[in-house]
Write a structure and sequence with these properties.
- By secondary structure, this protein is of the alpha+beta class.
- The protein folds into two domains: 117 residues, Electron Transport, Fmn-binding Protein, Chain A (Pnp Oxidase, Chain A, Roll); 66 residues, no CATH class.
- 36% of the residues lie in helices and 31% in strands.
- It is built from five helices and eight strands.
- Helix 3 runs antiparallel to helix 4 and helix 3 runs parallel beside helix 5.
- The protein starts with a strand and ends with a helix.
- The structure holds flavin mononucleotide.
- Flavin mononucleotide binds next to strand 2, helix 1 and helix 3.
Length: 195
């Protein structure tokens, strides 16, 4: 089983415009593979400017926000590669990456990246249970068309326990955005089925 690091990745087009989205980085020797599903602006950006910065957000609202239509998080210039990265005020660490090769694929091209620099912003003690629950729920919320509704319901019910026990204001807000997305999807599915 591959080791996958869940991060928020910024890619930048030739004009300097940043695109932000959560992606899992797949460990590959001393490098990482970035694999966005098509269609994604990240794929076009990496063709124009083959660099990316993957960051571990301090505030899980960045992760939940990106998958619920709230992508307007502040960015800043990267230190060691051309392009931008998530603002250091919002992250524990950055991995500044250079694409070394691309494995083309109709669904999911794989960009093999070299680590140009690891930038530690904080001494990160790790996520608590509620932060992990938001991360897991955010992933689930991007797979609503692929997973059986019972599985989503069961997993959300389990993750909700960690939210009830350990969430602060930020995690509660992030959780609310994700639940709204799931409920909107369920309503649409129900209405379509009803004809
Ligand atoms: C923690 C996390 C990891 C994710 N990893 C990936 C990934 O590796 N590849 C991918 O295409 N989508 C991944 N997703 C889903 C994308 O973030 C989501 O579909 C997003 O809307 C993609 O944006 P884009 O269409 O602009 O690329 C992940 C989501 C989360 C919350």
């Amino acid at each position: 089983m591959a080791f996958i690091l869940e991060t928020v990745v910024v890619t930048t087009d030739a004009a300097g415009t940043a695109h932000i989205a959560p992606y899992g980085l797949i460990a590959d020797g001393d490098g990482w593979v970035l694999a966005p599903f098509r269609p994604s602006p990240a794929i076009a950006n990496l063709a124009e400017n083959p660099f990316a910065v993957a960051s571990s957000p301090r505030d899980v609202r960045v992760i939940a926000g990106c998958v619920t239509g709230r992508r307007d998080w502040p960015t800043e210039p990267a230190d060691h590669v051309p392009g931008r990265r998530l603002s250091s005020d919002h992250v524990h660490a950055h991995l500044e990456l250079a694409v070394e090769s691309v494995e083309e694929d109709v669904q999911r091209p794989r960009f093999r990246c070299r680590v140009v620099e690891t930038v530690a912003v904080t001494a990160w003690p790790g996520y608590n249970r509620a932060q992990n629950a938001v991360l897991e729920a955010a992933i689930l919320s991007t797979r609503l068309d692929m997973l059986p509704p019972e599985k989503i319901e069961r997993e959300i019910a389990y993750l909700a326990i960690a939210i009830e026990k350990t969430a602060g204001r930020a995690e509660r807000e992030a959780w609310g955005w994700i639940i709204d997305r799931i409920e909107a999807h369920n309503t649409r599915t129900h209405n379509n089925a009803a004809g």
